[in-house]
Write the structure tokens for this entry.
Amino acid sequence: MKVFRIRLAMVLMALVSALGVAACGGEEESASTTSSTGATGATGATGGESDSSSTSSADLGLLNEGELLVGTDAPFPPFEIGTPDVSGFSGYDIEVMNAIADQLGVEPTYMNTSFNTIFRDTASGQFDIAAAASTITPERSKVVTFSDPYYEAQQALVVAEGSDVASVDDLSGLIVGAQDGTTGETYANDETEASEVRGFPQGPDAIAALTTGQVEAVIIDQPVAIDAEEQTGGVTVVEEIQTDELYGFPMAPDNTALIEAVNGALDELKQDGTIDELYEKYFSTTPPETVSGG
């Protein structure tokens, strides 16, 4: 009986020892897995930060996890240069949005749509956000929630070279072109005595109508007017119209997580000089305080 008890004790000790080895092996394997999913650095802590970042991205209320679906209306240079289906799609809006997506840790995908419906489409969940040189207005803010401002805009009056029109005061009785649904179109209707304000689907369409004599003047965002003067030829900017508009990125009002994240990313881009660099690149100037917050 004594021998049996000794042997039993030895078996129990061996079993306990085996269990202890197995438990240690499980801990080592878990630590190894955590380290491999994180960036190079302190084991455990870095892996935890990576997990937190991934969770944050998943909590943005995006239509597709890891992807920022962006509605746009292109071309509208220098804000949208080219179209999303063409390699090299770029512009001020696009570079700012790409930088925001990078801050959020998601991949931007652009979809072209009509500016006339872009706010409704964004609010109804067709896109996560829009990047389309969109002025923040009370009327639009009833439909979408805008990000903080990232550009300050004025309007401009564009006419054919050799025209007698020198200012908006000369538009009485004339046909004035503008892009559908824009603040330029609103200004032409409300602030001029044009005989007709003719809307066009895209900004370049309005400029093309000017060059072919379908309209006698165009009111459009100043940077777009300057780009048309430099690139199109045959047209000239005769007046800057001081409207002090601010652009924002429209989002669905109920996606508060994305709104807060986009504003946080924009603030970072303003602080680290990215917005300054892009303003200089596209407009050869520095952003005003209304944009920089400085």
